[in-house]
From TrEMBL, chains A, B:
Known catalytic reactions: L-leucine + 2-oxoglutarate = 4-methyl-2-oxopentanoate + L-glutamate; L-valine + 2-oxoglutarate = 3-methyl-2-oxobutanoate + L-glutamate; L-isoleucine + 2-oxoglutarate = (S)-3-methyl-2-oxopentanoate + L-glutamate
Lineage of the organism: Bacteria, Bacillati, Bacillota, Bacilli, Bacillales
Coiled coil segments of this chain: none
Protein name, entry field: Branched-chain-amino-acid aminotransferase
Top-tier EC class: transferase
Protein source organism: Paenibacillus roseus
Modified residues (N6-(pyridoxal phosphate)lysine): K196
GO biological-process terms attached to the record: amino acid biosynthetic process; branched-chain amino acid biosynthetic process
Length: 363, 363
């Protein structure tokens, strides 16, 4: 099935940045994808057009009631020039799960995948080639109806924008120091923590500022009910190697079901490493450390892939994990995952999708 | 101190709507207020200009990470033609409390009040005169920096738009039927429930849809930790008259500190009615009802002022309060409050602010 996405190409192309010098998500490609929704017509007018400002009514619901969701994935350029996406279908499934939770109408996943494909192909010169770099892709949906009543919007935009990103580990993979937050809460069961919706990120800013002031780069959230079970870190899920098992918080309704998390669980399983998905209290973790059983810890997410955790600080108790060095599993997972993502290693799980073809302007 | 707000007047004016026929917040006045913030310059360029779409970069942070807050208040036209605002300084204080929680820079409250004043005066023909009508005013701030990193924005817009609204009680004040939500949660202590931020409203949509399907007009939220203490209703705080006392949930960090709530507490106090601000469980309420001690219930908020509650449905247990009729205190509070707001009754608390003068275009 072909989807009729109209394509208008940019007449001038912007210079490509030096990806080693730009921050995350600060520079955008020449084109973007946009599709509109009206309650009467459904989703309509899918189009690729030059990256440009959009006109918004000041009363658009997104500004007032935050009805919006997003996704994040990456396109990679292989050494032999092919273009790969990593499990994009999973991102689109999650996009619709987020939509469902936020009362936003479903997006056709097949059409969305085709939009991703065409947009990446149109801007394929923007996929950086240097080791560790990639093209970050941001699909998102937001409410545009100009109406101040608190009710689901009758109009939306689905957009995709893309940004070349440098290596997360320009100076080599190195463990992060993390602040365990006991005052602020990100999300609670029954809320929207499992949806990739804007409000969850705004809700986390204050604790993140507090952590930075204290010299920590990230926040580890605890659950909002007992204030003791481990949830997730900023934009990552977390894993702990305790004794001969790996433990990660279960999908309890308040954390995001990370696609890297799922990939890590599958990969560890294929290596014969037992992974427990369960409630894990911060006390249990500190105890395991005292008993010498906390071997390593790492975060998982699209941006960093695997981010080893070298230190945790919880109410002025500090633990150094694995002597502050990158653990064995972290390193192996990082190498295997990025190897598959860049087409350098076999893909036994069928995770990568190669994008082929060219896209030309419709008339 | 005069603030230099530049003023550009609309060359054509839109026809005024029939307020008896329009829904809440669907029609906007001829002008809007806008002011920009940059990390380098601070807040700058305050201006009143014709109501119009704004240009937004698709990467603007508000779309992705929801850093935004808002306020809501009303301007009233008195029978003798004066223009009154109700406690606008309280809205501006709360605006800055919300800003603080969401890591948004403070707005100068004096300048914001002057902006409110000039904007209302410019569009004063839009304040409807019919009984029960008013001009709804929506100040709001949102993050505009085009950057996908999760961190406080370095650019914002502060805007004010206004919408004439019809009478909430066109067919006379009548009690609402409310669904008590036990599955979904709006906010939890440590989160952002006490801030008037977009994400809280998006988070509430799903439960609201569920309530509507079951024939209820509003959702009463329970706390996210114990799932038993009463929080608030949609866009209202709640009060219960139990025996000879009035009880309302305390400001516990997860509910909004409503300005109508505060006004009601002061007014009841001045009448010699004891008001308790404390934790109140839904069980206690149902018990009080069984014992015949639950005399009346009402919500308080800018939109409805006082909204009597005639029925509560909690896990298939239903209670009818005050025989489903408007209670004595509800009626008296409604009359006194709206009387003060419309300048028909004396204002012993110094709550109303009269706006005077005219505003002309700057050049
Ligand atoms: C809150 C949160 N948790 C976890 C993740 C990791 O998810 P994924 O592995 O799909 O990138 C992300 C980032 O997407 C996130 O925003
Ligand atoms: C969540 C919430 N609670 C309570 C209120 C009532 O507050 P106020 O009386 O200031 O309008 C509102 C509306 O502003 C609200 O949005």
């Amino acid at each position: 099935m072909t989807h009729r996405i109209s394509v208008e190409l940019a007449t001038t192309k912007r210079p490509k940045p030096d990806v080693s010098k730009i921050g995350f998500g600060s520079c955008f490609t020449d084109h973007m994808f946009m599709m509109d929704y009206d309650a009467d017509k459904g989703w309509h007018s899918p189009q690729i057009l030059p990256y440009q400002p959009i006109m918004m009514d000041p009363a658009a619901k997104v500004f007032h009631y935050g009805q919006t969701i997003f996704e994040g994935l990456k396109a990679y350029r292989t050494a032999d020039g092919r273009i790969l996406l990593f499990r994009p279908q999973q991102n689109l499934k999650r996009l619709n799960r987020s939509n469902e939770r936020m009362s936003i109408p479903d997006v056709d996943e097949e059409l969305a995948l085709e939009a991703l494909r065409q947009l990446v192909l149109v801007d394929q010169d923007w996929i950086p080639r240097e080791e560790g770099t990639s093209l970050y892709i941001r699909p998102y949906v937001f409410a545009t109806e100009p109406l101040l009543g608190v009710a689901p919007s009758r109009q939306y935009k689905f957009m995709i924008i893309m940004s070349p990103v440098g290596s997360y580990y320009a100076e080599g993979i190195h463990p992060v120091r993390i602040h365990v937050e006991s005052e602020y809460v990100r999300a609670v069961a029954g809320g929207v923590g499992q949806a990739k919706t804007a409000g969850n990120y705004a809700a986390g800013l204050k604790a993140q500022e507090k952590a930075s002031e204290q010299g920590y780069s990230q926040v580890l959230w605890l659950d909002g009910v007992h204030r003791k079970y481990i949830e997730e870190v900023g934009s990552m899920n977390v894993f702990f190697r305790i004794g001969d098992k790996v433990v990660t918080p279960e999908l309890n309704g308040s954390i995001l079901a990370g696609i890297t998390r799922d990939s890590v669980i599958q990969m560890l399983g294929s290596w014969g490493v037992e992974v427990e998905q369960r409630r894990l209290s911060i006390e249990e973790l500190f105890e395991a450390q005292e008993q010498g059983r906390l071997v390593e810890a790492f975060g998982t997410g699209t941006a960093a892939v695997i981010s080893p955790v070298g230190e945790l600080n919880w109410e002025n108790r500090k633990i150094i994990i694995g002597e502050g060095r990158t653990g064995e599993l972290s390193a192996r997972l990082y190498n295997e995952l990025t190897g598959i993502q860049r087409g350098e290693l076999a893909d036994p799980f069928g995770w990568v999708l190669e994008l082929k073809g060219t896209v030309s302007a419709t008339s």
